[in-house]
Amino acid sequence: MVDVKLPYWLGGIAIVLAGTAFVRDPYIASVANLIAIGALTAVSLRFVMLMGELNFATAAFVGIGAYTTGATLTILNWPFLLALLAGGVMAGLVSILFGYITLRTKGPYFLLIGFAFTEAVRILYSKSIALGGTSGMVGIFPPMILDGWMPTFIVAVAALLILGLYALERSDFGKILTAIRDNENVARTVGLNILLVKIACFATASAAAGMAGSLHAFANNVISPGDFSFLVAAFALAYVKVGGEGSIIGPLLGTALLVVLGSYALGLGGGEHIFYGAAIVLAVLLLPHGVTGLVSGKRPQAGGGH
Q1: Which of 8, 34, 76, 212 is 20 to 30 A from 161 in CA distance terms?
Q2: Where are the domains of the chain?
Q3: Taking a C-beta distance cutoff of 8 angstroms, is the pair 83, 72 a contact?
Q4: Where are the transmembrane segments (predicted)?
């Protein structure tokens, strides 16, 4: 049964959502888009961490979502909403096959396979003439009815998907995931089909990551293979670790902090990456349980030893 109590952080999302409706500054709108899409990606990565795995294939599924949306919209001329949803559906379907093959492995092996898969998919995009090759795809525009409202739409869609993952985490399915993380052998003795549960978790998270990719495509109107390197997963992990993995508010807070910090660091010229990387390292060293852990004093729940 799902815990129907609404989380307090929904109030913050509602405020942000209302605020984006009045934003006309392109810079602020772009930051809002980055936070919403980054938060959804980070929450999807954390969802897999609930069962004790670190999913570096997240970047690949973000890319699959983006390229599926781009192709269905610009090549197949699908309607906006169908093209948007197609990204999540395709990412989910591909992840079922990928998960069936790889989820029998654990720990660093699963992580390395995800890394290799991400790079293989990225190279595939760059070699595909139909998908624009190294130049990528252009002309991925939302309908005119959303002109000026796209940041609000992106934040709203991301918030709904994050709320859906939160509901699943609080449901019996979420309890099963944490039971598998805590002791897979015990979970198996009570009759759970471990592989099936893992695939369901992985596919759900990957579909959400695919939707993040779809939103990315519409937010930027252009995509290229370089947008979907392993750094997408690395940044998502940083958002989770800096914010704290003990609750879903961690990735949300971590994303907001690091995106704003990263935007500020752009003004530092060549030193921006050093500044950004140093901020992440210091946060992880000084706040091992993240910002939310500092506030609550609780140890992280998700991801176990990651």
Answers
A1: 76
A2: 9-229
A3: yes
A4: 7-23, 29-49, 56-76, 82-103, 149-168, 189-212, 218-240, 247-267, 273-295
